[in-house]
Task: structure prediction
Amino acid sequence: MQEVQLTGVGEVVMAAANASGSARWKLRGQWAELVLVMWAAQYLPGHPQLVGRTWLPADWFVHAAAWGYAVDTSNWPRYQPRALD
Result:
């Protein structure tokens, strides 16, 4: 797997390559975001959608809080801008 990209709510596009060529496919499902997060956490912790938290729907934290889930994000990866040389 070379790439996983969230393209919509419940939808990721994945790309892979091997000696026979390359393939891209779209996964749509309730757990698509989990595929992105698990892959990125393992293989690309600096993935822009992971560190920018853009994989989460805009009202996700509000929804979680309404259901009684206090989400602690203190240990989540954070975007670190590169220092100018």
